[in-house]
Amino acid sequence: MNPLVSPSILSANFSNLAEDIDMLNRSEADWLHIDIMDGVFVPNISFGFPVLKHVAALAEKPLDVHLMIVQPEKFISEVKATGAYVMNVHYEACPHLHRVVQQIRDAGMQPAVTINPATPVSLLKDIVGDLYMVLVMGVNPGFGGQKFIPHTIEKVRELRDLLDSCGSRALIEVDGGVNLQTGARLVEAGADVLVAGNAVFSAPDPMEAIAALKSL
Question: Which residue range is the domain that position 153 belongs to?
């Protein structure tokens, strides 16, 4: 089965954002990945809900919203108001993760949890049964264009084994350093969803780059 592709608009041209979203609408992309950063949980600030509101109005694909922020549970209603399909929070940012996951699902969105490169897969054992998706970071979160961390491949394999052993049907998503080379290895290891930023928007033909990732 071919992977889902969720291009990250963090790498889009914000002076022509409407054009880039139109391109994604016409492409084979499955979702639009939205990285929201607060400058606290990660050392960068991206954009907030005013921008996301306009993105949501233009987008014809489901929104895959990834909150790289402290206390993401405070913004469940704001994310829901954008019509988001997936709300993704970081394991490291949620001391009461099970409650947050329940709140996301109760709000009518699909709950997902992200783990940073240094966070062990095993810590997810007690929550994977409640998740729609797990996102494994292939770089340290905060900036686009970083070099892929090779150990991510092994983490995806380990996560696939954990999901299978728990009977969980959660999807495995990978964000950071994803291109055709790393993407092929990730899909072979068990990844279901590929988030790609630079590999799409820096390509000579972004729509062709998305189609190539879809064919992995």
Answer: 4-214
How far is 66 from 88, CA to CA, in rounded Å? 5
**Domain tally for the chain?**
1
Known catalytic membership, residue 175: yes
Annotated binding site for a divalent metal cation: 33, 35, 66, 175
**What pLDDT shows up at residue 145?**
74
pTM score over 0.85: yes
Note the pLDDT of residue 166: 94
CATH number reported for the structural domain that contains residue 156 in this entry: 3.20.20.70
Cite the annotated binding site by residue number.
Answer: 8, 33, 35, 66, 142-145, 175-177
Tokens for 147? Answer: 């070099």
106 counts as catalytic: no
- What whole-number distance in Å separates Cα of residue 146 and Cα of residue 150? 12
Where the chain has pLDDT below 50, the residues are none
